[in-house]
Automatic annotation (TrEMBL):
The keyword Oxidoreductase applies. The lineage of its organism: Bacteria, Bacillati, Actinomycetota, Actinomycetes, Micromonosporales. NCBIfam families: flav_wrbA, PRK03767.1. It holds the Pfam family FMN_red. This is NAD(P)H:quinone oxidoreductase. GO terms for molecular function: NAD(P)H dehydrogenase (quinone) activity. Residues 6-190 form the Flavodoxin-like domain. The gene is wrbA.
Amino acid sequence: MEPVNVAIIYYSATGTVHALAQAAVEGAVKAGAHVRLRKVAETAPPEAISARPEWARHLQDTADVAEAGHDDLDWADAVLFGTPTRFGNPASQLRTFIDTTGGLWYQGRLADKVYSAFTASNTAHGGQESTLLALGNTFYHWGGIIVPPGYTDPVQFQSGNPYGTSHVAGDGPPGEVALRAARHQARRVVEAAGALKAGRAA
Ligand SMILES: Cc1cc2nc3c(=O)[nH]c(=O)nc-3n(C[C@H](O)[C@H](O)[C@H](O)COP(=O)(O)O)c2cc1C
């Protein structure tokens, strides 16, 4: 069977979600998928970015990550979206990308793919679940097949979010539990998308 194509599309201002996205890449590659890691375009004004050195530094550090385009969505059998929590919602940078997909949606080209999402917030209970559920609203509109991690691996009882991998950035960068959870989530997405792909090819 052809390998599963996975697009991992994320926004990260200061590197936390980027680290989770990289772990998701590892999990998907290990599960045998072809993977594209893509960041969405930065839309914040330069003065906002330069006011936070860690933001400017992360943008520079990830300058070589390709920007997400519609062809990445079209290509993918499964898409994992990563975003920081912004007042309990996905970051506007990711929403801006998603809000350009009307044409693809209208042609039915976003339907029947597997979707899943991960996030970070600064505080515990800071809106991680509402952010993931808000992204889920879009997946429903697209006719997507949502594959959450649930409690399908022992690491989920440590990381504790069945809706999607989540990290409290206020505690520092993602540690081994969050990274393992991201790898597990990606592996599960690849397995679900692979079963669907095989079933459709049969
Ligand atoms: C405008 C704005 C709104 C935010 N809203 C929340 C929030 O509702 N809850 C929370 O815990 N953290 C909030 N944060 C903190 C971010 O979620 C946190 O910095 C982010 O997850 C770090 O991810 P990154 O390093 O990938 O950018 C907010 C940050 C900004 C700039």
